[in-house]
Amino acid sequence: MNPTKRNYRATFILDNRGKEDSIEQIIEGVKKDIASVQGEVTAVENIGKKDFVRVTDKKFTGAAYVHVNFSAPAEGPAQLKERLRLNSSVYRTFVQSA
After folding, report:
1. Helices (H), 5-96
2. Residue 40's beta-bridge partner residues?
3. Superfamily of domain 6-97
4. Which of 89, 94, 88, 73 is nearest to 5 (CA)?
5. Cα separation, 56 vs 62, whole angstroms
6. Domain ranges of the chain
7. Per residue in 9-42, pLDDT tens?
């Protein structure tokens, strides 16, 4: 049975400090994580590096922002957040219904 998919827009703040991976490589990894929760990526928009409004770490004042539109089952965003929680390259994840 094929579950009904919903559309989502996720914003990721990526952290590649001290890593050899480029932002594009991290985005490809995030797309694989979305596919692993039965999601289909429809659009990727790399916003680029932005400074944080509220800085929590003086050594980390800004990062790359990426918007990803995808469709997934209703439990997809929760599963995606849990998978990305363990990924040190993804600093923050925001998922909202589109």
Report:
1. 23-36, 76-85
2. 71
3. Ribosomal protein S6/Translation elongation factor EF1B (3.30.70.60)
4. 73
5. 10
6. 6-97
7. 999 999 988 888 899 999 999 999 999 999 999 9
